[in-house]
């Protein structure tokens, strides 16, 4: 826009105000303005107009241009143009000829201060990306802003705008990372452009002004600078910064001590600054740190302090002066200027005042320009979040019934205050869940699922450091404890795994349950059903599925009373008394059996079992006790198995009953002994059979033996000889078809008749007894988990004396074939395959010992045994 014709054609005023939306003629009376690095420029312009009442709607928020003309009045030239929008309008006074008005001219960016947000959330964006997004939302064209950045700025997991206007928000973000901004005029569009920069290369160079103080009332129209004033300040000597990253907790995120003077400030700087600020996640390189790391922020902080070390002020008539210019002040040679101003200066601020009566006067604020030290804007305070914000736990999966967490157990949430649409599961940074207890892979954690309301707190009130403080219930997610069950303390998971503790007096109970497989519960105390009806008292462990009780060191189950838990857990006084009484009783019976030459009872082993294993659960045993009785009932079978002995002792009777059969079988001997009352064997129906299939039957009585058949006969049969003897020497022998009677005394025959006839015989019915044969044996081979040995495994037997192979068999489903042991019952067995071999010995005491020989070899015929037994450690 060419305003020279307007300036020279309509007025002799050097300063023109053009507001296209205003139809009135405007004449500038006076103005003042200020421009600074990383601040908005601000001009207050007073003007007059013949229009007595200019409508504010023609001015407010409308573009305006202030033009400062220079040179002779008849040949004014543009020296500076300031474009912006009118942000304030005031009617000061009015007369019959004209009215006086005042406006405030600021860049369009100032309007961003009118857009306020209590909450806004940016996820996975860098600071420049957030700033650009905000500018675009306010319809700034890409030519109206420019990023001239040397550094690369990483994307942050989350950046929150909290209780800030859009302008204050982006100003704070830019200052945090050391990005400064300034304004220029776009020549073609005649509109302001905002420039964002983080290094000296973005500054405007090649600006010079001579030192020349005005003489009297005239400066001869020459641009110059004068009134140079230098202020030196003591500033901080160095900066150290530190932070903590919970996702890399072992790393020390402390910067090196940053001194950006490189030691040149020694003696004129003082103090060490230590910042513990929650804003970096990495330490960064000491020499060339990456952006937003510990060393980066430490250097940035010290550059901020050094920006106030040397301050230079001056006065000038040059209207083109502006922040971000690098100005060289020229002087005669040799220069009489102080050393700080003999080198280039960085202009950080300018002030402009002018009126119809007074010429333009420009004040400036500058600092020494440095290639190694960059000017940084002051750090603006972050807003503090007081209290918490509500949010909802989210998931990348719609209607997710499980917690959605990352590898560290962190959650994503959607803030209730967030009105922007984001990708599902990406509404926030990963946030930690605060817990009442935690440690290294241990702690207290109930996973939060999608939709759960949570209260979000912030570390030290920092809006960019959220974490889940606690979970909340609402009308959609009802509390498990309400007025209906206010006496209960409940922990319940979404799948209805539950721990319930009832505190109602007189009905106290604890319930631990899960719904898997129907219902599995542990109920303690006053046990009730779903409608609070009493089910029982005490404790109940129940399940609709399988159950198992396992204790590696032993289990003690007792019904002996221990009121109020006043006693040791393994207090066995009552059961000890019962076991001792049983051993004593068995010892007494054993002594009686010994006197009667009967099989002795092994009470010593029973006593050893009690003392060495049962009492105090010294070994892995199951001990059960009840003062009033123990009952075992089964709807089908009941099995009792012991790899060694079974002891049964009763203070009175042992009664066995079966609706069908009772079968006793022993591979060696069955011994029955009674001490006082005798033995009864009565068969109500059927036969009474007694057989000794490979031995003798002895029936001995101290008094009488009576054999009676009440309705039939009696037959005595012997395969060879049948002999009847009596004390005194008399006998009858039946053998080989002959009858022999003999006695040392008389034979007395009392009879009515004695009949004789020829020879006669009766065929004897000698039953054929079954031959049980020798005892057969087999091997079973299982691994530690009970799995059967593979079919590649083989067992081979050798006689322990002759060393000859006796038998060999492969394993099928973990079991070998059967074999008859040698007569000596002493042999060795080699078990294994081509990868593993073990040697075992078996003796006539039925003891099996591992005598593995590592030197055993296999060939195509299987294991070869040389008869040498070398005792070695088990593998």
From TrEMBL:
One Pfam family here: T6SS_Vgr
Residue spans of biased composition, Acidic residues class: 846-858
Region span, Disordered: 842-875
Protein keywords: Coiled coil
Parts forming coiled coils: 579-620
Domain Gp5/Type VI secretion system Vgr protein OB-fold: 404-472
InterPro entries: Gp5/Vgr_OB, T6SS_Rhs_Vgr_dom, T6SS_RhsGE_Vgr_subset, T6SS_Vgr_RhsGE, Vgr_OB-fold_dom_sf, VgrG2_DUF2345
Domain DUF2345 per the UniProt entry, residue ranges: 612-760
Residue ranges of domain Putative type VI secretion system Rhs element associated Vgr in the record: 492-593
NCBIfam families: vgr_GE, VI_Rhs_Vgr
Family: Belongs to the VgrG protein family.
Descriptive protein name: ImpA family type VI secretion-associated protein
Species the sequence originates in: Klebsiella pneumoniae
